[in-house]
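Ops channel
N.P.: pipeline sanity check, posting one input/output pair.
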């Protein structure tokens, strides 16, 4: 965050909560699993796809919309086809 945040609203609990959600949804980040990436590049690609889905395609119960819609970045819930088209366009 940039600027001068209000110190009474600063807390690491938001970051820890977000990290926990990421670990719960990605087996690659939990201990004692066989779901791992052999290459770091593949791990980065997996996380990129996860964050794209999490922010643009998944409706969050507390927001009742996607985080991208709440931030004004997107005006609709993305489908898997939208994400694949975006990835194909990037090549």
């Amino acid at each position: 965050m940039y600027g001068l945040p209000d110190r009474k609203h600063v807390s690491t609990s938001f970051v820890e909560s977000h990290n926990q959600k990421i670990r719960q949804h990605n087996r690659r980040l939990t201990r004692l699993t066989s779901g791992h990436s052999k290459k770091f590049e593949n791990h980065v690609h997996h996380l990129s796809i996860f964050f794209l889905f999490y922010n643009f395609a998944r409706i969050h119960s507390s927001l009742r919309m996607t985080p991208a819609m709440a931030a004004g970045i997107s005006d609709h819930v993305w489908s898997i086809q939208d994400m694949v088209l975006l990835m194909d366009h990037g090549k």
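N.P.: looks fine end to end. The chain has a mean pLDDT of 84.
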